[in-house]
Write a structure and sequence with these properties.
72 residues, mainly alpha, 1 helix, 0% strand
Length: 72
């Protein structure tokens, strides 16, 4: 009987350690996903600004008579 109680105690301790590890990993994943979301928004804004700058800059839209024909 003593060995069964010892085995149960070891199994419960192992489950408790596993639960603590999973909870810690879950918190890290949530923090990482928040960081990735912020980075995605930043990249999206930079892409929009770059597209606007390219459209309005000196290399933006060339004149109609200076356009190259499409490649075949």
């Amino acid at each position: 009987m003593r060995w069964i109680l010892l085995d149960v105690a070891i199994a419960l301790a192992a489950l408790a350690v596993l639960a603590v590890l999973v909870l810690g990993l879950w918190r890290r994943v949530k923090a990482l996903s928040a960081t990735v979301a912020v980075a995605g928004e930043t990249v999206g804004q930079a892409t929009d600004r770059l597209a606007a700058a390219q459209a309005s800059g000196p290399l933006g839209e060339p004149d109609a008579d200076h356009r190259r024909p499409p490649a075949t």
